[in-house]
Amino acid sequence: MRFSALAIVGALVGARFAYAGACWKAETCRDNHFETKQNMVSFAVNFCAGTLSQPSAYERAGVASAFSIGSWGGNITSCLNAFIGIVNACHGTVNGGTADSGLAHLAVSFGDCEYL
């Protein structure tokens, strides 16, 4: 399972795909700590693998946090697309973002200035 999830993430990080979400409008918070893009990708794999059968989930990894509500339909790829989409579109410019996929909503914060 871990190998296949990492292979999927590797493909997603390099691929361009439609991102159905929004970066937060606030600029990156000053004097705060943020997880690296690489750490956020690892967080995505762990978070998505653990949320497939949950109606809602909240996790922290270092100073980052993620919240999901709704159903991913047991499909890790949908969750990973949303999470990695937020990371690719928003990391380095703002502190996080949101994405919707079917019946699920995801919010991801990269640092400690806005906890979910």
Molecular structure report:
- The protein is 37% helix and 26% strand.
- The protein has three helices and five strands; from the N terminus they run H-E-H-E-E-H-E-E.
- With 116 residues, the chain is α+β, with helices and mostly antiparallel strands.
- Strands 1-4-5-3-2 form a five-stranded antiparallel beta sheet, with helices on one face.
- The N terminus is likely disordered.
- The N and C termini lie far apart (28 Å).
- The longest helix has 15 residues.
- Strand 2 and strand 3 form a beta hairpin.
- It has one domain: Killer Toxin P4, Chain A.
- The relative contact order is 0.25.
- It is globular and about 40 Å long.
- Helix 1 packs across helix 2.
- Keywords: Signal.
- Pfam families: LDL.
Q: Percent range for helical residues?
A: 25-40%
* Annotation, overall tally of beta strands: 5
- Assigned CATH class: Alpha Beta
Shape: globular
